[in-house]
Amino acid sequence: MRGRGDRDASDRDAARLSLVSVLSSGTARVVGSGVYLGRRRLLTCAHVVNEALGRTMFARRAPEDASLRVRFPCLPDGPALPARLVAWKAAHRAGAPDIPVVLGEPLWGGDLAVLELAVEPAAPAAAASWRYMDRGQEVRAWYGDGSSFTYADSSVGSVQHDHGFVDGAPRGAAIGPGYSGGPLWCDKEQASVGLVLGVMSPPDGPFRGENVLRRAIVAPWQAVERFLDATEIPAGPAHGDTRRPSGAVAPVLRHKLHTVVLNLLPDEDQRLRHTHRVLSALGLPGGSRADASVASLVELVLTQPRAAAVLTDELPRALRETALKLLSLCRGALVPGILTPLELASLLALLEGEPGRLLEEAARDALVNTTFWDEPLEARRGEPDDAVRRLVLALENYWGDSGSTDTPHRVPALLTAVEYVAALTATAQRDELREWVAAVAARIGVHESVLLSRRTDAEDWAHVRRARTTPAEPRLTVQLTRSPSGGHLCTVWYDPGTGEDGVVRQVLADDEPRGPQEVARLVQDVLLREVPAAVRARRSPLVEFVVEPEDLDLPVDRWDDGDADGGFPSVLGVEYAVVVRCPELRTQSLKRLRAWEARSVGFPAGAFTRLMPEHSEPEHVYRLLHQDQQTGRLAIGCSPEHRPRLQVVCLAQGIPVALWDRNDSPRRIDQLTALMLNGHPRSLPERVRAHRARTPGSAGEEAVAPVLVWDDASRTPPEPYWSDPSWEDATS
C-alpha cells in the first residue's frame, strides 16, 4: 500500500518534470508558471506573459517580438532558457470570447499563450501527459518555483466550455499569485487535467469574499486542446523528443530494476561501456563516469524509449534470463519502444511497397479480439505523419494478444501483425519478414511454439483472404441417378468459378444410362472443352458427384476413361480433385438443413473429430457430434460393419466435410487424420487427390482409398431446370 508520503513523491516526480517557472524580464523573479508540451513548446497564461513583460494584466493585443526567460525547477542548476511567444489567446469574459475582461471581474476564460524555447531542455525535463478534466477529480498545483512545500490540493467543482472551478480544502496552502499557468495534476489519472488561470475575485453584492478565497478559475484540458488544435500546435513530444517521466514508476518496481541492473552489470566499467553503446545507438551524447551508476542506468532505461531494447541486445547470451526480466519490468513501467532503432529501421525498410499497404488490413484482422482499435490512430499524438510508421509505432507499444493458443505467453501485437503480412507476400519477402520476426522474438523471449501458433493463424487467415479476393476454382457437378437397367443417368453443370450470376450452366442431361468408363470420358471431354489452359494451369478444376445415399461408396474417383490397349490409365481421382455430395440426407427435414447450415458457418474454423471403433450405434454418433456443435470436419474410423450405417447418420447430422476409407484398411484412421489436418481445411480436396496419385491402384486392401464428402455451403450444387410434379405431390 502506498503511503501519503509516497504519493507526494510520485506527484512531484511525475508532474514537476513538466513544470516551468516564467521569470520577469526585469528582475528575473518568478511571476507565474507554465507546463512543457514537448517539441520545445510550453504552455502558460497570456496574463503571465503580460506580467513578465511589465504590461497590464489583461492586455489583449499579443506583444510583438516578445522574448522571455524561463526555468525548469527540476533542473535547479540549469540556466534560464530564452523563449519567444508563438501563440496567443487573450483573456475574455467567461462564455463570451469577443468581450474583453477587465481587472476586477470575478472570472474569465481564454488567457492562454504558447512559448517556444530556443533549445531543448535537458533531462529529466519531460512533456506533460494529459487527460480531460471532469467534476470530482482531486488535483494538485504548485507555485511557479516548483518548491515541494507549495503544493495546493483542490477538487474540481465545475467544468464549463472555456473555464472551470476548483475548490481548495480549508487547510494547507491555497492557489494564489504565482500559480497561474501551472498544471493541475490528478494523481488518479496520472496526468494533468488543466491549467491554473487565477484566483476568483469576490464579486459585488452579498456573495462575500470569504466564500471564494479558495476557489480558483482553471482552463480545462478540453479548452486548452481546442486552442492548440486551432493553432496547429501539437501537445506531445516530437518523434526525436523521446524522454518520458519516470517518477510515476512505483518504488517497488524501481527497486527491482535496480537489482536486475546490478546483477546484469555489477562492474562500473561494464556499465559505462554499455551506457555508451546505448546512448550511441539512440543518437544521444556519450555519458560520463557519473552516468555509470546503477541509478543512472535505471533512469536511462525508464526515460529513454528503446534504451532497454538496445541494452538487452548488447548483453551476452549467458545473461539472457536476467535480461528478459529487465524487459519485463520496463513493460510493467509502460516504457515505450520494444524494438532497437536498428530493428525498427529494418522493419520499415521491409514494409516498403506492397507489404506496407497490407499492414493495416493484416493488423485489423490479427487484433480483432483486442482493444487496440478502440482509439483511432489519428488520435495518438506524438506519432509521425507517415501512415505505416505511425501504425508500426502504435502496434509496437501494444501488448494485447488475439491468438488462438491457450497459454499465458504473449506475442506482441506488432510481431503478430507482421506475421499476417508475411503470409500474404511472395516467397522472398515472406522469408525476410519471418526472419525479422524470429530474431526479435528470440531477443524479447517469445516462446517459439507460441510464435509458430501465430504463424499458423496467419496462414489460415491468408488462405481465407485469398479465397475472398480471388475466383474459386472451376467446378464440374455431375448428378448420378441409378437406372433400373443398370448404370447411371447423368446431369452435368459447369461453373467457371467467376462468381457471376447466371454463369453456372447445365451442359448435359442424359436420357440413356452410362457405365463408369463412359461417365469418366464424359467428365474429361467437358472439362477439356470448357476450362481454358491458362485457367487450368492456375487452378485445377474440382469435380463433384452428387449421389444418392446408397451410392456414397461408389468408386467414382477410380473411374478410368483410358483405352485398355493404350498402355496407361486416365483416372478421374488422380487427375482431378474428386469429391462427393449427398444433399438428400440434409434436405429431408428442416431440422437437418439447419444443422448443416450451422456447422457449415463455422467451417473451416470449426472443430475436427473422429469416429472410432468404440462408436457403433447412432446414439454414439449423436452424442459425439453434439459435444461441440461447431464441429464441421469428421474422419470416420469405426468398425467396417458399422461404417455404411454410421456415415449416413453423420451426414444427416449436418457434417459438411467427412473422410473415410472405402477399403476399411487397418491403418485408415491415422492416415485419414493426417490427410485432414496436415494443411489448411480448404485445401483438403487437393491433398486427397495427391494421396490418390501416390497410392497404387493394385495395392489391395492395405491401401487407403479415401472417400471425401465435401458439402460446401459456400457453393451449393445447382438445381435441375425441371421438376417432376408427381414427386412434389407425393412428398407434400
TrEMBL record:
Residues 488-713 form the vWA-MoxR associated protein C-terminal domain. SUPFAM superfamilies: Trypsin-like serine proteases. InterPro entries: Peptidase_S1_PA, VMAP_C. Residues 713-732 are annotated as: Disordered. This is vWA-MoxR associated protein C-terminal domain-containing protein. It comes from Streptomyces badius.
